[in-house]
Design brief:
Length: 153
């Protein structure tokens, strides 16, 4: 076995469409950040007996994905690409209506399992661009459930 570095461009992120069966790859991405420590919660447990040393215990785990890339629209209809459209739709909704499912693989070429979030929150980021730039697409996805593994078919 030879250890290899994993190209960031090999990461695949998919979002479940409203039909509940179709997974769509999020299009146009050129940067993905994965923060497994996002939304962690620590509770302090320092007492007089701690002798001046801080003590804590992790009470909650979290995870978030930061997606960035280029806005992608149909040249005839102007409709957003399906993955970007689903994220945009979920990001505009509140309460339980705004929760969706996401799955991703760290390496699209070698991983045999998806990391799946059965519940995730979606927030759209800024869409920028100057005179000679392409418009950007950005979103933050937050894990809102326990992560599970699912075989890549």
């Amino acid at each position: 076995m030879v250890m290899q570095y994993v190209p960031a461009r090999d990461m695949v992120v998919q979002v479940l469409q409203a039909d509940g069966t179709t997974w769509t790859t999020v299009e146009g991405l050129n940067s993905i950040g994965s923060d497994p420590a996002a939304n962690e919660a620590m509770t302090e447990k320092t007492t007089y007996g701690s002798a001046g040393s801080y003590e804590s215990i992790k009470m909650q785990v979290g995870h978030s994905l930061e997606l960035a890339g280029l806005l992608s629209k149909d040249s005839v209809t102007g409709a957003l690409a399906s993955g970007q459209a689903r994220i945009t739709t979920l990001a505009a909704l509140v309460s339980y209506a705004g929760l969706g499912q996401v799955r991703f693989r760290e390496s699209g070429t070698t991983d045999t399992q998806w990391i799946k979030w059965a519940e995730a929150t979606f927030s759209r980021g800024a869409s920028n661009g100057a005179n000679n730039d392409l418009r950007t697409f950005a979103a933050t996805l937050g894990r809102n459930s326990t992560a599970t593994l699912e075989a890549v078919l």
